[in-house]
Amino acid sequence: MLLTITKYEQDKIIQALQVLADEYGKCADHCVTRLSDGFRDDERAIRNLEFRIANLTERVDDQEMNLEIGKFLAKGQKINAIKYVRQQRGWGLKGAKDYVDKQPGYEPPPSLASTSGDRFFEDLD
Q1: 74/84 Cα distance (integer angstroms)
Q2: Full residue range of the structural domain in which residue 21 is found
Q3: Do residues 72 and 91 share a domain?
Q4: Is residue 113 very low, low, confident or very high in pLDDT (cuts 50, 70, 90)?
């Protein structure tokens, strides 16, 4: 027995296969997106775990930590000082920054709102 397909039926089959291919493409895109999101989540979890493991090391006392912070600040390495405090105490960024800012001898860099900036605008008048 021979199966005979009309032109209309052929067109319908081709159309159905195209719809199926489109849906397959959408499904594949969705899977790739989910996998890449999962990899990013895994990367964040690994970094968090590394940070927590690093903080399990023996911590120094306040006096020794303050000396080390002073060394960083003397070299103009405020960011490294903040990182050091975060590592030693497990604090967040704001807490560590505030601690470093309160260290004796720390001078914040001049801001744009300083008097030298005002003199610039006076010269323009």
Answers
A1: 15
A2: 8-54
A3: yes
A4: very low
Domain-embedded: residue 123: no
**pTM, entire model:** 0.44
Cα dihedral value 89, 90, 91, 97, nearest 10 = 60
Separation CA 65–CA 70 (nearest Å): 9
Q: Radius of gyration of the chain from Cα atoms?
A: 31
Higher-confidence residue of 111 and 19: namely 19
Asked, for residue 119, whether it belongs to a domain, the answer is no
Residue with tokens 């309160």: 102
State both tokens at 84.
Answer: 């050091």
Q: Tell me, what's the pLDDT at 57?
A: 59
- Of residues 53, 45, 105, the one with CA closest to residue 81: 105
Per residue in 31-50, pLDDT tens? Answer: 888 888 888 888 888 887 77
